[in-house]
Every structure is written in structure tokens, then in C-alpha cells.
Amino acid sequence: MLGITKIFGAVTALDRVDLEVSQGAIHAIVGENGAGKTTLMRILYGALQPDQGTIEVEGKAVRFGSSREAIASGVGMVSQHYGIIPELTCLQNLVLGAEGGLILRNRSAEARAKSLATQMGFEFEWQAEAATLSPAGAQKLEILKLLWREARVMILDEPTAMLSPADANALFESLDRLAAGGATIILVTHRLPEVLEHCQRVMVLRNGKRIAEKAVAETTGGDLAQLIVGGALERSEESSPFSPGSPLLEVSNLSVKGDRGELALKGVEFGLRSGEILGIAGVDGSGQRELFETIAGLKKPIEGSIVMLGNDARGLSTANRIAHGLRLIPEDRHAQGVVENWSLDENSALGLQRLPPFAKGGRVDGRARHQMATQIANRFNTRHGGLNLPMSSLSGGNQQRFVAARSLCLDPKLLLAFQPARGLDIKGTQQVYDGIREVCRLGSAALVVSFDLDELLEQCDRVVAMNHGRLYEPPASLAKDRDAIGRLMVGAQ
Exposed, middle or buried, 67 (CB in 10 Å: 0-12/13-18/19+)? Predict the structure, then answer.
């Protein structure tokens, strides 16, 4: 890619960017949210057209007018925003658009699907509706689409954002094998350890410009971090150890069924006090999702109790829990956190529209909403072209900044945060956790689910592990011991 320029209105998203990737390599592209990484990859994939610049793939000059043309030339992309159709089966989603004929031969298609999944270390119920997939499962299915279409150039945009450490390691083992077999892999990521461990070269974008390109063996995480942000990283001041206050959440003997009728939570018990950030670690599918949804009022327990902010939660709807001070950073911002074709202004009140200052005389106060939208966008420096623009105009990371900031407004008492730093750059991750810590030290409490154990160990006051629907807490002497918590995550106590 030579001299790629892309302009949106008054914003130059890409300014004469060059990118050269060797066959059989894993090449990383890093940068802050809004730096132009995804825009550059969407141009390579044919989803956007460059205003200037040229592209060559496998030595041939190309100009893709659509993603279909890119796919036909062996270029495939897995974006942060999944293209899964919930009503279709996993198999139908896999082959959609690449059926190979008028008739889908289910038996042979499923055999090939199983072979590809085994190659990547994935498992699926191929005849089950895709609606049953977790976000991590949907991500894996999107990756398999590249293999189904026999892509030779594979673009992966934040592929491990929703994967557990074990799944992420398995993915990179598979990517290493694919690269050794001649595949060309471009990895867009914010996780610098992934770059240093698995990639051969790395390019840094900042404000739409190529700042540097280096051999990974010749750089460090610290050097890359400084190139990404344009200077030394500002670290938040060390806060004093938290002093837990009164109980804000008490969960006792909680048992809950999953979507398929299985017992997803089995006698879970824990407490959360004001001032505390409690992290829940675990392999995806261990019960975190069901616990989150039950506390939020989206699932009903078959046994046990939840006392939230001094109230028996069994009689409270989700709206009532929010009115009492519950705030949410949902796992899937697109399905649960925003309405993409609504403006940022409209999205600022989503879920909070019944509360002042949004609510006025049974209606939403437009002026108050606009003021709140401004505060929400400013809190974590959400980059946007105007509060009247649709949420879809923002990059994934900037959408996450907005959703996280919204959860911290209107005096939160209890915060449920599922992957709060999903898709965020270094600075954004730090800002969001600093924001969570700030409201907790003022008397709130936060329950944080993340598949990144190192993130939890760094950011939380206490970390527990979930495994097969049960909750395990390490002994006090090993409270922040990575290996001890890792063993609890896989049931090796």
C-alpha cells in the first residue's frame, strides 16, 4: 500500500500512508483509537476506497471496488464488529456468501467446517443458531470464515479482544502455522505483548500518519508505547490502599440456568463493599455472563438471593436497579450498549432516560441531554465529529470510551463492567480504570469481568476466579498471585 490517503469531510483519516507486508509474516499495526488503523485495513479489504494511493497484492496492482472483489483476490478481514446473523445456524453463517453453488450440501460442508475448526483449536455446534454464541464464539466463527474462503492475506482487527488467555494462545499457535504455510497476516491490536511475542514487524500509526515501522526484535514495549502516544506515558498517581466500607452487593447461594437450560451458576457466594473493585477472572463461558446478567436483572435465579444497595433484588426490574444506582458497561456494546444509527446525543441517555436530568415531565429534556452528552464525550476524550452524528461514525475504541464514560455519570452506586477496556488503546484503558477507581473511592463499588488476567491483577483490589459456574477465591497469601489464580480458573486448586 503506497501513499494511501483518505479524507472524511474536514478530517484526514490517513495521510500518505505506506505499508509493506511480506508473505508468510505476521505484521502488526498499532496506534491509539482513531489513529487510522481500521480505515487503512478497510481500504485494503475493499470496504472503503482511497482518495489517493495504490495497492499491490502478490505483485499485482489492484483496486478493489468492493469487499467481494478483495475476497476473490484472496484478501479477507475479520473486523471488530461481527457480521454474524443470529437467526442462521453457525454452519450457515460460515458459508454465507461462499456456498459454492445453488445447493448447500450440509454433510460435506459440516465435515469441512469441523476440519477447519480443529485446525484452529475451535469447537462449534454447527446446527445451533448463531444467537447462542458468546461474543468470543462469534469472533472465532468470523476467523474461520477466512479459512473457508481460502484467504491468503488475512486481516485480523483486535482478534483477541474477547478471547480468554488460553483461546488467545491457541489462536496465535494457529496463526503461526498459517504463516509458516505461506499466509500473510496483518494484526491490528492494542495488546503490545501480543506484538512482541508473535509478530515479526510492527507499524505505528498516529493521527493518520505512519510514524514508524520496525522489526519487532529491535524494539520494546516501552518504545512502542511512546511512539503510539507521541511521548512519555503519563501514569496515574498511586492511590492509597482502599478501605472497604459497607456492603453494596451480597450474593448468596446463587444458582442460575443458562440459555440452553444447563446449570450455569452453582451456589455462587460473594460480597462487594463500597470502595472496592472486584475482578472476576475465568475462561470464557465459565458463568461470568450469567452472573452479570442475573445481577443486572436480565435473568432470574432458580435459587439464592441478591441484596443490592440494601434492597432485595428479587423484586426489582433492571430499570428499578438502575434507578437505585446500578450502572452497566455491557459485554457487547453493539448489541447492548448503543444504538448505532442514533446520534451520540441520543445515546447519552440510553438506559438512563428515566433519571434526572434527562427526565423532565415524563419526557427527555433535550437541552439537559446535550449537556450530559458533552460531559460524557469529554470524560475519556472520545474523538467524534459532532454529537449530532450517528454512533456508527465513531471507531470501535471511541464507542467504548463513550459507553464507559456514560456508566460513570449520574452518581453510580454499583458498577457492573464486562470487558470495560475492550478495544481500547493504552491511554484509553488507563483512563477508564482510573475513572472506575475514582467513583469507587468516593463510595461506589465495581464488579469487573475481563478475560485479561493481567489487567485484573493490575487494576482490581481483589480477584476471584470462575470455573464451571463456581466461584473460587485464592488464599490471602496468594491474593494477587497470577499462577494461583490461573490454576483456579481451570479448576486445578
Answer: middle
Using CB atoms within 10 A of its CB, is residue 169 exposed (0-12), middle (13-18) or buried (19+)?
A: middle
Which residues does 77 contact at the CB level (< 8 Å), separation at least 6?
Answer: 41, 42, 44, 45, 47, 67, 70, 146, 154, 155, 156, 157
Half-sphere exposure of residue 341, counting CA atoms within 13 Å on the CB side? 0
Instruction: Return the beta strands (E) in 35-150 as ranges.
Output: 52-57, 60-62, 75-78
In sequence order, the 6+-apart residues with CB closer than 8 A to the CB of 136 are 162, 163, 164, 167, 284, 285, 451
pTM assigned to the model? 0.75
Whole-number Å distance between alpha carbons of 23 and 151: 13
Nearest to 287 by CA among 318, 303, 266: 266
In degrees and rounded to multiples of 5, residue 247 shows phi and psi of -65, 130
Residue 269, number of CB atoms within 10 A of its CB? 13
Edge to edge, the sheet with strand 445-449 lists 326-329, 414-418, 445-449, 277-281, 462-467, 470-472
Calpha distance 208→229 (Å, rounded): 13
β-strand 52-57 against 201-206: which pairing, if any?
A: unpaired
pLDDT > 90? residue 307:
yes
C-alpha cell at position 302: 432458580
CA–CA separation, 314 vs 162, rounded Å? 30
- What are the backbone angles phi and psi of residue 161, rounded to the nearest 5°? -60, -30
pLDDT digits (tens, 9 = 90+) for 99-135: 777 777 788 999 999 999 988 888 899 999 998 887 6
Asked if residue 179 lies in contact with residue 25, where contact means CB atoms within 8 angstroms, the answer is yes
Residue 454's DSSP bridge partners are: none
Q: Is the pLDDT assigned to residue 492 strictly greater than 70? A: no
Chain centroid to CA 207: 22
pLDDT in tens, 228-255: 988 765 655 555 566 788 999 999 999 9
Q: What is the maximal distance between C-alpha atoms in the chain?
A: 67
Tell me how far CA of residue 299 lies from CA of 53, 293, 354, 409, in angstroms.
Answer: 52, 6, 22, 25
Whether 35 and 205 have beta carbons less than 8 Å apart is answered as yes
- Secondary element (H or E) of residue 26: strand 26-30
Report the alpha-carbon distance of residue 324 to residue 322 in Å, rounded: 5
